[in-house]
Amino acid sequence: xxxxVYEGKTLIFNGPYTLTFREGxxxxxxxxxxxxxxxxxxxxxxxxxxxxxxxxxxxRDDFPKGIEEIxxxxxxxxxxxxxxxxxxxxxxxxxxxxxxxxxKTTLSQYLINRLVDNSKRVSLIxxxxxxxxxxxxGAIGLTVCEKKIFDYSECKLYKFHFVGSMSPTLxxxxxxxxxxxxxxxxxxxxxxxxxxxx
Length: 198
Hints:
Elements: E1 2-5, E2 9-14, E3 17-27, E4 38-41, E5 46-58, E6 67-71, H1 77-89, H2 104-117, E7 122-126, E8 139-145, E9 157-162, H3 172-189, H4 191-197
Antiparallel strand pairs: 1-5, 2-5, 2-6, 3-4, 3-5, 7-8, 8-9
């Protein structure tokens, strides 16, 4: 069904969910979706969609089930300032550290999209062993982001380093070895060569 949506609000889609942008202007995780673009939100994932100009989104017939609505944007102004600082100072490495469910994945996804939008090539080392988005659980995963993404399921796994635990607490050395190995791989091989292998 088509749902009228209004400027200045955010709809948070809880996966699994599929939606299609029909009319209006939107921003989702640093991406401005195209007209008639269809997006799937994976199970146990969330996609906040900020409505920049009123329009219509095609949603499920059981609306509003699976959707939360809030006033304003869920993206803090500090995130955009961080993007500006990264681009201005030309950082080539960023480490995001935080407690469980603190927004690390959301921030990294937003940064990837904004940097790719500014013609940057981006690689991601996912060392969150228990909540891995890149590669199998209990392993550190490496991907190269060639385009903007709505979900990490769109990223190809380039390599992974098996740690064998869902937590780095008792496996800190093995975790650091894998992380360092991938940092060197990015520096030595380069993003271009890794993209060409895909």
